[in-house]
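Lab notebook, bench 4. Still working through the backlog of constructs that have no structural model yet. Next entry is a single chain of 371 residues. Request: give me the structure tokens for it.
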Amino acid sequence: MLEARAAVKNLHAYRPPLAGRTGLRLDFNESTVGCSPRVLARLRSLDAELLARYPEREPLEREVASFLGLDPAQVLLTNGVDEAIHLLCSTYLDPGDEALIVVPTFAMYAIFAQAEDARVIEVRAGDNFTFPTQDLLAKLSSRTRLIAVANPNNPTGAAVAGEVLVQIVQAAPHAAVLVDEAYFEFHGETLIDRAFVHSTGQIDNLFVARTFSKAYGLAGLRIGILAGETRQMAMVRRMASPYSVNAAALAVLPEALQDQGYVGRYVAQVLNNRERLQQELGNLGLHYWPSHANFVLVRVGSAHSEFVQALRQRGILVRDRHFDPGCEGCVRITVGSNEQTETLVRALREVVEQLGLPKELPNRLPTEVRA
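Model written out:
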């Protein structure tokens, strides 16, 4: 009888709660206002001939490379950051190799590594989710072949200083180091310039991922970026399907890139409302962690499920993160537009009063979360 590989049978499947997502979607860190009108106009102009052809991504990779200040050979467009992670695992991990991740973090790093029959080594974040640099370095071994770091991190919103990331890259020259900058636009700091554009030395084991799912509002089209050193990217490209990025996504990408005014206005709203939300959470007596992304993690305590349900009853979806390491009793809230934040704040005040929160005193004070 046909059976899947043991590594696949042992995987813990990641099934996000996508069903029944009606209302104000503050649960998956998507754009809450959607893509640029220029993107929609281009989508409406697509014709049957374009959809009948296999997509060609190389011209768009040249455009993206120019936007990032890179050589086209350093850039691969992917089917979201998920494909980028999958490609790195397939390119560099053999059975028995080790992949290091700092938890809590995005689940797909571990899943794709385990699918290659690699051993995932989890390093717990420090107090207030500070980045455990020394703990991670202490876990390096000759079997370490992949290190994945989300910067800023999901679900905590914590950020890692560039110098720390470079230190890790240099300490593990035999490992592929992925810095996932999915929330770059809300953070404003990148390793691309330091490592690839203005680098004075050769860094050939660093990869940086970006996405158009968040600030650009293109989550439904699934398009991301993987950037790295030319020779290593040639190896990754060998593993990539030539048609993994669909024609519609490629067709609208130039409009998305060129309408930076639209993206900038949305990001500015999110940054202002992130501060407003954090202030409101503090005023309500709820413990939160200052964020560098487009969401805020808040500790509700034992009433986390009731909190999520009470907001859903008011038409607002948020994400229960109680089962993530170190996130007991926590809920993640995506930050949206001015009007959406007004709606959220009113609902939060009602729910906090309804549930009699906070029921437990916070065990830490909110502090800047950065290593």
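Notes after review: The first strand starts at residue 24 and ends at 25. The chain has a mean pLDDT of 95. Flag for follow-up if needed.
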